[in-house]
C-alpha cells in the first residue's frame, strides 16, 4: 500500500474550464460522494443560467487500483478566482482543460488555460477534454486553432462528463502519459 507524506504528497490532477462546462460533474462522476464540494447558488445568472456554481476549489480522491491514489481538484473558471486557479495549477502534476469546442471563444479560452499551465514552474501535463458533443470537423478546427496559436499538438479527448467510464478513461490516459514522462531521462 502506498502512503503519502508531506515529502511525497498525493499526485493532484486539476479540472479547469469555464463555468458550466462540467468540472463538478466530472469530479462527482469519479468520486461520488467522496468529495469536498463548494457549490453555492449562482448569483451570476447573466453569464450562466445554472443554479449552483463553485466557489473556491473542490477536491476528491480516487483509487487507481493497487493502492495508488490521485487527488482530483476542480478550479473555478470565473476570472475573479484567477489566483486560486494559478495556485492549484502550480500544485498539480496534470491538468484537464475542459472546453466546448463549438463555442466561439473555445480556442482562446482553452489557449489561456494551456498557457497558464505551461507558465508554471514545474508545468503540469495538459490534456484537453471536449466536453460537449462535437463533430469531427469542429474538433479538428479547434485543434488546428490551438496549434496555429502556438500551443503545439495538444491531445483532445471527447468525453461525456456525466459518464464515469468516460472520465475514468481520460484520467487513465493522463496517468499513462505522466508515467511515460517520469520514465524518460
Ligand atoms: N446536455 C448536456 N449536458 C451536459 C453534458 N455534459 C455535461 N452536461 C451538464 O452540464 C452541467 C455542468 O455543470 P457543472 O458540472 O456544475 O459545471 P462546472 O461549472 O464546470 O462545475 C451539468 O448539469 C451536466 O449534467 C453534455 O454532453 N450534454
Ligand atoms: Mg463547479
Question: Could you please describe the fold and organization of this structure?
Answer:
The protein is of the alpha/beta class and 185 residues long. The chain has one domain: P-loop containing nucleotide triphosphate hydrolases (Rossmann fold). 36% of the residues lie in helices and 22% in strands. The protein has helices at 23-31, 82-90, 106-118, 136-151, 164-183, and strands at residues 12-16, 35-36, 39-41, 52-54, 58-63, 69-74, 94-99, 125-130, 156-158. A hairpin with a 5-residue loop joins strand 5 and strand 6 (69-74). The site of guanosine-5'-diphosphate has 18 residues, from helix 1 and strand 4.
Keywords:
two-stranded antiparallel sheet, single chain, Rossmann fold, 9 strands, alpha/beta, seven-stranded mixed beta sheet, binds guanosine-5'-diphosphate, 185 residues, globular, binds magnesium ion
